Amino acid sequence: MSKTSGYDAFWMPFTANRDFKANPRIINRAEGMYLYSDDKRQLLDATAGLWCVNAGHGRKEIGEAMSRQVAELDYTSPFNFGHDIGFEFAERLVQFTPKGLDKVFFTNSGSEAVETALKIALAYQQARGKKGKFKLIGRELGYHGVNFGGISVGGLTTNRKGFGPLLPVDHLDHTLDVTNNAFSKGLPENGVEKAEQLERLIKFHGSDSIAAVIVEPVAGAGGVIMPPKGYLRRLRDICDQHDILLIFDEVITGWGRLGANFAAEAFDVLPDLMTSAKGITSGVVPLGAVFAKDEIYNTINDAAADGSVEFFHGYTCSGHPVACAAGLATLDIYEKEGLLTRGSGDIGTYWQEALHSLKELPGIVDIRNYGLIGAVQFAQQDNGKPIGFDILKKCYAKGVMVRSMENTIALSPPLIIEKQHIDQIVSTLSEVARDIW
Ligand code: PMP
């Protein structure tokens, strides 16, 4: 006899479990731009899952490549053993990364990529004899996954509280400025001076105690916040001046989301370390990665010049052969279909104009976009309760899957999106906004 009633055993992540289980939303099938709920409704996926299904759902090529790989080599230890598909995938990946980020360390998720990047940064400072440089700087409203390093540098208070002491960190202010930048198309004009706060933090802590600064080029989970024009370049310059590493967490901004391979390319700012996950396999299987400059790899390796292990870190499934097969098939799709630059072409322009057409609706205080990412921010209600989740549920009822954060609806569709899908997203949001206000 079954011990549970079907929904009991699964402790769901980032979900109000009891509320969900009283009224579950179950998706059991997906294809192309669409998800299908268990009550046989078709839902347009305006979020690419969680910013990850960049090639669209149900890509058979990826499944077939994985299946062939299972038959060939399902698994072997990545510690002191290798496999061709891992090396092939690594070489192929660094063809896509900005020039200079030519080494890749594999993880299983974005959170693990962040932990790995932070540990590489600390190991690098140790290896070059800068033993006092161990503090990390993050940013308010930043999201860097849910492990201890990630929540330490992260700036979402809900995710940080309740877990005891975290790492020694400090935080820059976030760059959201609805007063001065509302309804900016692309990058906002105002706010470059916020980067100067890094100078203040460096003065306060001393550059000889700071190992690295980590930011999302576009802050995602904190509300889809674009960097002001010149802001990331200024962070880069300040880090260079003070001998501090700059880490871009590109878990959502990589793989075509901004109309380029990575944000580093879109914004022409090269970090020292760059994280990736999600779109690296189009979300089909878990895989994360950290891309590092040669200098960092070489310094850490040189410090163990006697041939011993230079970096005591890694995962059982680092560079898992089946995940690598999925990744290679994903890169083939991206290339063959030109998906990674769609956001900076005609479809990106259509996306921008369609989203901004919502501007005149009641209750909307800001619209933000870049590439194929977007956000519609609604006014704070008089009762102080965030409205985002209500809007999400209303959109779901009307057949469109969106994501909510406080008063903001976040949009990040699969990169295969066409104009008719954009029209459906915009008309649904428009109906819902009119219903509410
Ligand atoms: N960093 C960023 C910027 C993210 O958006 C996310 C996930 N949304 C993560 C890290 C964590 O990735 P994962 O959930 O795969 O651990």
Automatic annotation (TrEMBL):
RNA-binding listed as a keyword: no
CDD domains: OAT_like (cd00610)
Membrane-spanning parts: none
EC code: 2.6.1.18
Sorted UniProt keywords: Aminotransferase, Pyridoxal phosphate, Transferase
Entry keyword annotation includes Transferase: yes
A GO molecular-function annotation: beta-alanine:pyruvate transaminase activity
InterPro entries named in the record: Aminotrans_3, PyrdxlP-dep_Trfase, PyrdxlP-dep_Trfase_major, PyrdxlP-dep_Trfase_small
Pfam families: Aminotran_3
Superkingdom assignment: Bacteria
Family indicated by similarity: Belongs to the class-III pyridoxal-phosphate-dependent aminotransferase family.
Protein name according to UniProt: Beta-alanine--pyruvate transaminase
